[in-house]
Design a protein that fits this description.
By secondary structure, the protein is of the alpha/beta class. The protein has nine helices and eight strands. An eight-stranded mixed β-sheet has the order 1-2-4-3-5-6-7-8, sandwiched between helices. Strand 5, helix 5 and strand 6 form a beta-alpha-beta unit. The radius of gyration is 20 Å and the shape is globular.
Length: about 290
Amino acid sequence: MPPPDSTLVARLAGWFKGRAAGRIEQLRHVASPQLGNRRTITVYLPPGYTHEQVYPLLVAHDGQEMGAWKLANALARHHAAGCVSPVVAAISANPARMHEYGTAGQLNGDGLGARAAQFQAFVTDTVVPLLRRRYQLHRGPAHTAVMGASLGGLSAFDLAWQRPDVFGVAGIFSGSFWWRITDASVAEQQASRITHQRVRATETKPPLRLWFQAGTKDEEEDRDGNGVIDAIQDTTELIDELVARGFVRGRDVIYRETPDGRHHPSTWARELPEFLRWAFPGPRLES
């Protein structure tokens, strides 16, 4: 048998490597007319991306942290397992993060979140349409997800809750659901948590799938002294509110509690593959 042609071998090796690793593009200086600023969006394309297929979309807050989340590795493993592979758009935060992330239309007790409504409009009215023009993406909310951690997780939930016509799936890692209106008494702190109030005030259940994670070492604060840290209690009590509005545990709502999990990208990187499997299940179509 003659030896294999070295040029052909090199070409095949490059082809397989490209399909295993995917491709990363950077959209620099994307203008936001809503915020009057610009930012970088890093786009992770699935291995073997082709214009002949249509892909789901995942928008990630705090895009500058996705290296620490090991997002590219998680996406490669997700693809290698034969699962549906999303296009991921990671939007970098800026120094105004404490005002751009938050609950749209409602400041917290410290006056933070003043630009949350504008940021959400930037995502839904500028970023998502831009991505849909540039890439082959599903248009429906069932195939459009958003994720974030800490304050970015709060923002991801609020964005999906406010705009279920755009986002049908949200992944919240160590969400800042303590976000509240007052720091008066403990009872008033509990009652004034903004996201909990919003869920209680919503009469019609939005068509959302929600995945929550919290770590047992997210923090040490326990405002009501019940032996459960606030990060976990705020998350589980929000889930209780969702269930009261018709969400079904295990179907519409998933809760993942990470033993020894910290408020840190190393913990979120550990849990990211599970979120991807839940958000984008099923076998992918081969090109």
